[in-house]
Amino acid sequence: MRPVTFRMICRLLIASVMVLSVQTARAGMIGADQVTSAAPAQSERNTVLNALSRSAVTSELQALGVDPKAVRDRVAAMSDEELRSLAGKVNSLPVGGEGLVIVVLLVLLVLVILFD
Questions:
Q1: DSSP letter (8 states) at residue 40
Q2: Under 8 Å CB-to-CB from 51, ≥6 apart: which residues?
Q3: Among 2, 5, 46, 63, which lies 20 to 30 A Cα-Cα from 87?
């Protein structure tokens, strides 16, 4: 290769590297309040998902014509306030679990899914 061509190619490569590498990475510290606000939301989401994974709840959803996977997807898309409200209702259920309370909870969940 001739030295003139070699120099021109080198200059072109140097210029392209300089122009194309202007992106910079930014990192920052997150506060403790941001970390602690994410943990309860995940805990509430797990509470609701655990309640939905029960066999009685799954069979009742299927009896109502609702796909359990669609319900899990909807729970994943819920806002933190919706999750807090629903998890509070799940946590207020009696330990033995009355059938009527579960049905009311399911109807409430179906209404949230259908009318949201």
A1: H
A2: 57, 90, 105
A3: 63
Asked whether the whole model's pTM tops 0.90, one would answer: no
Q: Which residue has the tokens 């059938």?
A: 99
> How do the domains of the chain map onto residue ranges?
49-116
Mean pLDDT by 10 residues, the chain (116 residues): 83 80 71 71 81 79 80 81 79 63 69 70
Q: Which two tokens stand for residue 91?
A: 């946590």
What does the pLDDT read at residue 103?
66
pLDDT at 90: 74
Residues 6+ apart with CB under 8 A from 112: 74, 82, 86
> How many whole angstroms separate alpha carbon 107 and alpha carbon 113?
10
Q: Is 47 exposed, middle or buried (0-12, 13-18, 19+ CB in 10 A)?
A: middle
